[in-house]
Amino acid sequence: MSKNSLNVRDIISSPEFAFGRHDYDREDCDPAIMVGGTDKDHIVSESYDDEERVAYAAKTGKILPRWHDVNYGAYDETRGTARFVIERAEMEGGSTGGGMSGHDDYPDALHVTARRLFQNGDYNPEGELIKFTYDTNCYINSIDHVTVHGQMKLIFTK
């Protein structure tokens, strides 16, 4: 499939959707699961700030270590067989001359946001949100294989 073959309202699925992680950089403002990859876990080392360490020591008499590992992995086997509807699909994210060496180019990629449907295929406004880039190896949350099952009808109600 080409990058332009996914569109808003497409009903999609992929076994790759099972693998994902919470977006720890924006967890408070963006509940979407970043899908893609092959790992069930996504371990990040984080530090406790001094206030947390002092409060914990005062409460328990024990000192927290400066660093600890947090698993932001969001593996869900059922997500790999579920159907989603694309709510947003836009080319974005490219840059020139970035990266560690100052010479890395990142092309635009199709960034997709999709919502999990009810099992019967009906739209679920509270369904799980996923995000991914499509058909590119320049981003860690890239999905290579997506099956399109049709399109949802767009209906306006009052």
What are the key terms here?
single chain, 158 residues, mainly beta, 2 domains, 8-stranded mixed beta sheet, two-stranded antiparallel sheet
Polypeptide structure, described:
- This protein is mainly β.
- It has two domains: 10-40 and 75-96 and 106-151, no CATH class; 43-72, no CATH class.
- 7% of the residues lie in helices and 36% in strands.
- It contains one helix and twelve strands.
- It has one helix spanning 50-60, and strands spanning 10-13, 20-22, 33-35, 43-47, 67-71, 84-92, 95-98, 104-106, 109-116, 129-134, 142-143, 147-151.
- Strands 1, 2, 3, 6, 9, 10, 11 and 12 form an eight-stranded mixed β-sheet that branches. Strands 4-5 form a two-stranded antiparallel sheet. A two-stranded antiparallel ribbon has the order 7-8.
- A hairpin with a 5-residue loop joins strand 7 and strand 8 (104-106).
- The model has no long low-confidence stretch (mean pLDDT 84).
Helix content: under 10%
Radius of gyration: 19 Å
The total strand number stands at 12
Largest sheet: 8 strands, mixed
Order of helices and strands: EEEEHEEEEEEEE
Structural class, by secondary structure, is: mainly beta
The first-to-last residue Cα distance is 37 Å
Average pLDDT number? 84
